[in-house]
Every structure is written in C-alpha cells, then in structure tokens.
Write a structure and sequence with these properties.
Blueprint: E1 6-11, H1 18-26, E2 48-54, E3 58-64, E4 70-75, E5 85-93, H2 94-104, H3 115-121, E6 123-125, E7 134-141, E8 144-150, H4 163-176, H5 181-189, H6 200-208
Parallel strand pairs: 1-8
Antiparallel strand pairs: 1-5, 2-5, 3-4, 6-7, 7-8
Helix pairs in contact: 5-6
Length: about 210
C-alpha cells in the first residue's frame, strides 16, 4: 500500500459511529440493524479516523428494511456554506471504499470508482438508479482526497428514521463531537425526516439514554 492508494471516506449517517462503520470493513451486523454485511476484501482497519464537518445538508428519506423500514441518511449533493453536518472521516484504501460503495448499494457486482473524474467534476455517478451511487468529492485533507457517498438527486418525501437508526447517529456524534445535549437536540430537530416526527423532548431522552 502506498499513499496514493489512500482516500478519506466521510460518514455522516449511521457510519459516523465507528463500530457500525467497521461492519462494512470487517463484516458483521451493526447493533440495531437487521442486516449482516460481508465486509471488504481487505479487512484491515482504517489507517486513521477523525471528526469532521461538511457543508452538505443531512436529510432522511426512503425506507430501509435494514433499519426497521425507517428513513436513512443522505446529504444534498450541492454544498451550502451555511450548513454544517457533523461527520467522521476514515482513511481507507481505494479498494476498501469501492467495497463500501458495493455494500451501500446492495450491489452483487464489484464497484469500480472513477476517483479522478470525481475530483475533476466534483462528483461521479457510478450507479444509477441507486441510493448511494454518487461519489461526491469534498476536497483534500493531509494530501489525500476526501469523498462521501450519497444519492444522485434529492429524495422526496422525507421519511422518519427509526429509533435504532437515530440512536446510532446520536452515539456516533457523541463519540466524535463535543456537543451538549441541547446542542445535539437543536442540531437534529430541524432535519427533514426528524422535523415533525420527533419532539425535542423525545430527542433529549434518546440522547440521554432515557425511554420515551
């Protein structure tokens, strides 16, 4: 492995929780999920991981059978400097990110990502139709390119994420970012899919580990 083989992958939904994301690397069933992942061909752990924020808006859509048929996280492919989405980035090999993309899209075939095209154009669509078929280029960090996966278009309508899925995201944000309970409630309450489906009190109880 050389430095040229390494890229950063940004997780903004359930993948912000390290234990959940590692199921894509080593294989296994994430806590709260109904699905077991095969893992990558290369099951070595990420070289590094760091908290980060991205200027792409988080929203919840579709219905995932893996997560109690609730909505799951996507980001708007268009950057907005007024938006902050709490995330976590993992330093992987290019092949590992291709294998993550394969699993994210439930693809039977191996995925080949055109990283150079994504860097040149800001994105590349490698699978369509799909939920996570858009490789989005987010810049560079420590001399390695930074990417995430999202949808080609913005999915509507927004859908309510399950308690299990939302809890996974909350744990991931708590693991990576030093937010107070109030700050985390305020961050989540306005997100499409959460707004109107969860109250501030319900979010507070989820964050503090209390039952509704």
């Amino acid at each position: 492995m050389t430095d040229n083989d390494l890229v950063w992958y940004v997780g903004y939904g359930s993948n912000i929780l390290r234990e959940r994301f590692l199921c894509y690397i080593t294989g296994g069933q994430p806590a709260g999920s109904h699905k077991t992942h095969e893992g990558c061909r290369d099951k070595n752990l990420p070289v590094d991981d760091k908290p980060t924020v991205i200027n792409h808006e988080l929203y919840f859509a579709k219905n995932s059978s893996s997560w109690q048929n609730g909505g799951i996280g996507f980001v708007n492919g268009n950057a907005n400097s007024a938006i902050t989405t709490y995330s976590r980035m993992y330093l992987l090999t290019k092949q590992q990110l291709e294998d993550v993309a394969k699993q994210e899209n439930d693809s039977e075939d191996f995925v080949i990502l055109n990283f150079e095209e994504a860097i040149t154009n800001g994105y590349t669509i490698f699978k369509s139709p799909s939920w996570y078929g858009n490789l989005l280029y987010l810049g560079e960090y420590n001399q390695h390119p930074v990417f995430t996966l999202t949808s080609k278009t913005i999915f509507t309508p927004a859908t309510k994420p399950s308690l299990e899925y939302l809890t996974t995201i909350i744990k991931g944000i708590q693991q990576t970012h030093r937010l107070t309970t109030e700050e985390l409630v305020n961050y989540l309450i306005g997100k499409s899919g959460i707004s109107g489906n969860y109250t501030s009190a319900e979010l507070h109880n989820l964050i503090t580990g209390k039952n509704f």
